[in-house]
Amino acid sequence: MEYVVAVDQSTTGTRAMAVDRSGAVHAREYLEHEQSYPEPGWVEHDATQLLANVNYVLARLRSGFSEDPVALGITNQRETAVAWDAETGQPLAPAIVRQDRRTTDRIDGLADDLRATIRERTGLEPDAYFSATKFERLLDREDHRERARSGEVLVGTVDAWLCWSLGGEHATDVTNASRTMLFDIERCAWDETLCEEFGVPMAALPDVRPSSGSFGETTAQGMFTEPVPIAGVLGDQQAALFGQACFDPGSAKTTYGTGSFLLQHTGEEPVRSDHGLLTTVAYQREGEPPQYALEGSVFTTGAAVEWLADVGIVDDPEECASLAESVESPEGVFGVPAFSGLGAPHWDQRARGTVVGLTRGTTSAHLARATLEAIAFQTRAVAEAMEADSGRSMDALRVDGGAVENDALCRIQADALDVEVVRSAVGETTALGAAYAAGLSVGFWDSTDDLREQWRGDARFVPSDEAVAGRYDRWQEAVERARDWAREE
Question: Strand, helix or coil at 64?
Fold first, then answer.
């Protein structure tokens, strides 16, 4: 059987998946990695563990097949920053993860004209979430920056680290580059002014390539009998857009994972946002112009459900759905899961998680319901901003990610948006998108038309409860109470 393998290196774990020509998934492997929180607001990963886990899941997957895959695709947690020694291949420090807030003060101190430049050239809102200030912090130690100027120290997002470690090429794709706050999305090139501002030598940055193209070859440390082309790389959210076959301008998807991300394909021209969204590169095929998207990043969604279990409100995250549906409403309780600040459309680095409306009669069921509604309301806030920017109303929303296995969340989301929510038949659309990009590059699939025809929905959820949407305005009041909370006394 001919197949493509995709690696999805996410915030919490690493997945490998084998996909055949029909788009069917034949095998999966998954392994979690450690999360480190050395100080409040800090989040770190061990980059060597990420690589080891990639090799582990590839080895497990390959053992089930008689032949090597025809291509390998990679998708990754975006914005997470790695710095490593170009000679030894050893990371210089733990990877600084996307949610990490240690550089908040640096962002707060940016001049207004620089903020405007960042928005205009990168399409991003200045925020510690993105990679630029993470790279800056990693290079601030010892003589790292000086060595980076000569190429002795390299930096990159996780995809670049994996491409270099697996195949020896220091490369990234346009989607990951567009999340660094150092990349001019219209010129599709690193921006010299921004690199200089944040002290990131361009010699240390990876070569930027189309998402569906060439990123070297790998035997995955001997797991493959012959070198396999690394033929597709996409940041995780753009990979999910690709995996959901959102190839037409106006099509949209939301992925619900640790956070959630709503992307709408806008075509060959970037649409600038006036409503707190990000303009980003959606994908690029080799020899073709880049495609763009509007994106709304919600920092905390699935992690909010995990928090309910962490503090004992529910025994297990899977219990949240049934508990939430055991009550008709949260009885005046509203939650804002701003554990790492608020993303789009608010962009408040100092917002923090808030629950309001508690009474003596509040139960765990009300808190579970309020959490799911908060997830849905955050998506609605982004969808409203997106419609205002693009001028396109949303007829349906394709959804994926671990949290959408929760039917209650899908139903509440449909009610909150007042549009049909369609769940993908393949839950791992992020990995699927990476497989698609790699397969297109090597001719495994002929065109995106083939992929569009393969896409299937698993379940459809139509709006049925107007009361949920009616609580949205009240939830926005709770958001105002969560804002600008994390200030020094």
Answer: coil
SS3 of residue 368 by DSSP: helix
Residues 6+ apart with CB under 8 A from 3: 18, 19, 20, 26, 65, 69, 70
Secondary structure E strands in 142-191: 153-157, 171-173, 183-184, 189-190
CA distance 81 to 100: 10
User: Distance (Å, rounded) from C-alpha 371 to C-alpha 117?
Assistant: 37
> For residue 348, what is the DSSP state?
B
Which DSSP category does 23 fall into? S
CA dihedral 107, 112, 113, 115 (to 10 degrees): 40
CA separation, residue 118 to residues 115, 196, 229 (Å) = 5, 13, 35
What's the CA gap between 273 and 384, in Å, rounded? 12
**Within 10 Å of residue 99's Cβ, how many Cβ atoms?**
24
Q: Is the dihedral of CA 197, 199, 204, 205 positive or negative?
A: negative
* Tokens found for residue 8: 């999805």
Q: Which domains, and CATH codes, for the chain?
A: 4-234 (3.30.420.40)
Inter-axis angle of helices 407-417 and 364-390, to 10 degrees? 50
Q: How many whole angstroms from its chain centre is CA 442?
A: 25
Distance of CA 182 to the CA centre of its chain: 18
| Tens of pLDDT, residue by residue, the chain (489 residues) | 899 999 999 988 999 999 999 999 999 999 999 999 999 889 999 999 999 999 999 999 999 999 999 999 999 999 999 999 999 999 999 999 988 989 999 999 999 999 999 999 999 989 898 999 999 999 998 789 999 999 999 999 999 999 999 987 999 999 999 999 999 999 999 999 999 999 999 999 999 999 999 999 999 888 899 999 999 999 999 999 999 999 988 889 999 888 889 999 999 989 999 888 999 999 999 999 999 999 998 888 888 999 999 999 988 888 898 999 999 999 999 999 999 889 889 888 889 999 999 999 999 999 999 999 999 999 999 999 999 998 888 888 999 888 888 889 999 999 999 999 999 888 889 999 999 999 999 999 999 999 998 888 889 999 988 888 889 999 999 999 999 998 764
